Amino acid sequence: NAVMATQMTDAHRRFLQVLMSNGITEASEARKLHQHCCETDKVYYAHDKLDDFISTINHHLQPLFMQIRKGISEDDGRAHYAVVNLAETEVTKMASDYTETELELFRKTMDLIILSENGFASSTDILNLADQLQTKKIKKKEAEQVLKAFVEDKWLSEKNGEYTLHTRCIIEMEQYILSNYQDVARKCNICHSLAIQSQVCESCGIGMHLPCVRKYFRAQTEPRCPTCNEFWSCDIP
């Protein structure tokens, strides 16, 4: 494969460094960054070759068990890129930044979000976990600070006191979530990436992201499940 054989240039390295320091990068920003890196290092730039450019980086990252992955924001359906450490299947990728107690709070928050009907957990429910932690009970004030850090570091998103998993978290922890929540975690029937906030068919149980539901039914005369063809009973966003 010609793409895979390509050498890693300074442009590739620069792109990778920025992606790693961002944690997560929106696709339009990644395209601008691609252009900037190529122009800065005076290498050939083709606007439609971002995926090839990333494939070259991923080829060189393989021995390091790392990969640049693409994921979709559950909020608006926009594509994002994040660098994923494939060697760490646990929530250990967060371990260098947080204490054991903070990680336990994160895991319990994750439980609430993934086991919920709509992919959200209220701040009240999360803060109630603070004094039930095995590692060390913490005060609600302290727990509020920890939640704030999770949001700032793009592991959680918050809207009106409701928390869900950030796109970064979904991209980085997809494998962890699929293997640890086998009974409830599902992939979107349309884009095939992990769906936390989703609508589910009452007849056959498939799930779809809200932006994917919107896009899919826009082209249909009446809302029917793409798998079992039964009437889609959820309100289309």
From TrEMBL:
Show the catalytic activity: S-ubiquitinyl-[E2 ubiquitin-conjugating enzyme]-L-cysteine + [acceptor protein]-L-lysine = [E2 ubiquitin-conjugating enzyme]-L-cysteine + N(6)-ubiquitinyl-[acceptor protein]-L-lysine
Q: What does this protein do?
A: RING-type zinc finger-containing E3 ubiquitin ligase that assembles with melanoma antigen protein (MAGE) to catalyze the direct transfer of ubiquitin from E2 ubiquitin-conjugating enzyme to a specific substrate. Involved in maintenance of genome integrity, DNA damage response and DNA repair.
Gene3D superfamilies attached here? 3.90.1150.220, Winged helix-like DNA-binding domain superfamily/Winged helix DNA-binding domain, Zinc/RING finger domain, C3HC4 (zinc finger)
The primary site where this protein sits is: nucleus
- Record-annotated RING-type domain positions: 188-229
Organism of origin: Origma solitaria
Describe the family membership recorded for this protein in Swiss-Prot or TrEMBL.
Belongs to the NSE1 family.
- In its UniProt entry, what is this protein called? Non-structural maintenance of chromosomes element 1 homolog
Primary gene name: Nsmce1
